Amino acid sequence: MPSTMSISRSKPLPFPVIMGPTASGKTALALEIARRMDGEIISADSMQIYRGLDIGTAKPTLEERREIPHHLIDIVETTDKFDVFRFVDEAEKCLTEIRSRGHLPIVAGGSGLYLRAMLYGLDPMPSDPVLRADIDRQFDNDEHFPELAALMEKADPEDLARFAANRRKLLRAWEVFQLSGQPMVRLQERWKTTPPRPDARSFVLVWDPAVLKQRIMERCRAMLKAGWIEEAEHFLGAGLDRAPTAWQVLGYREIAAYLNGTVPLADLPGRIATATWQFARRQNTWFRTQHPEAVRIPMPSSAAETILRKITEPAS
Questions:
Q1: d(CA 133, CA 74)
Q2: Is 297 left (phi over 0), alpha (psi -120 to 50) or beta?
Q3: Crossing angle for the helix pair 228-237 and 209-225, nearest 10 degrees?
Q4: Are 22 and 111 in contact (CB under 8 A)?
Q5: Average model confidence (pLDDT) for the chain?
Q6: All structural domains of the chain with their residue ranges
Q7: Could you tell me which residues come within 8 angstroms of residue 15 by beta carbon, excluding any fewer than 6 positions away?
Q8: Per residue in 100-154, pLDDT tens?
Q9: Is 49 in contact with 57 (CB distance < 8 Å)?
Q10: CATH hierarchy code of domain 129-187
Q11: How do residues 298-307 score in pLDDT, each as one tens digit?
Q12: Do 129-187 and 15-122+193-312 fall under one CATH topology?
């Protein structure tokens, strides 16, 4: 194994941010860099935060987590709400603590909004917890949610069109509109012109689509073989389908359909892989449009060498 590199210097190295679609190899790459650079890993995965959803969110193994410190994994219950604001707050604390130990923070994940907020700052959206609680009481249910869509059709059709399939984002957009009188999309325009933070270097892992699809299928099969159905059955019995955000984890809806008898077992890997591939395509679009600063690394390749070179070379 390559020897550990020393990072002691008067000015800390910029920390690497490794992003990419699901099944692109982010975890393995982050571990390799952590071993070589005396690093600690900060997860930027919005679903690995939940305790117990181990197989379905492809968390690093317990052995890997014992070897290399990992942060922002298993920090909330599936019934808890967790948002980008809390992520940024927790991640900044981790960055400070890791640097205080003389170690290199390594951020790895595929949650685009979390990564964007960490690198560019939170979007300048107004918020009001009292108003939001009232909006949730009114509209965060199947009976009255269509009423919110009707209101937004008249007042904020731009955000309705963007978030029609995502209840949480529509609720947030309505909160912003009530406070500002403007669509959230308009307020986010200035966020897009903000430069990224100077103490980070971003990298996107880029795979040939056909190869990535095959990797996704292979991982789905391996996860099912490892006990994903049993894991899902346990959490569905505990009310995962009623959880505010954890229910968004890829694959659990398809497994629920299998457990309900509407999807045959033989079709399950393909259904999960298809949903995962569609999500991976959206991730790739996000990284391409929202992270112009990132170095794109064709895979497979000696990605670790590229990252180490970029974070250790003198600033231009």
A1: 26
A2: beta
A3: 70
A4: no
A5: 91
A6: 15-122+193-312, 129-187
A7: 95, 104, 105, 106, 107, 199, 200, 201, 311
A8: 999 999 999 999 989 999 999 876 678 888 899 999 999 999 999 999 999 999 9
A9: no
A10: 1.10.20
A11: 999 999 999 9
A12: no
Q: Between the CA of residue 298 and those of 16, 22, 67, 203, what are the distances in Å?
A: 17, 15, 28, 10
Locate 14 and state its tokens: 């910029």
For β-strands 70-71 and 104-109, DSSP reports them as: unpaired
CA distances from 291 to 2, 112, 280 (A): 30, 9, 16
pLDDT category, 262, cuts 50, 70, 90? very high
Tell me: the pLDDT tens digits for 178-194?
988 888 888 777 666 78
Contact assessment for residue 53 and residue 144, using Cβ atoms and an 8 Å cutoff? no
Please, are residues 259 and 232 in contact by the beta-carbon 8 Å criterion? yes
User: Does the domain at residues 15-122+193-312 carry the CATH identifier 1.10.8.80?
Assistant: no
* Confidence bin at 1 (pLDDT 50/70/90): very low
Provide the residue type at 109 as one letter: G
The rounded distance, in Å, linking the Cα atoms of 87 and 95 is 12
Q: What is the pTM of this model?
A: 0.79
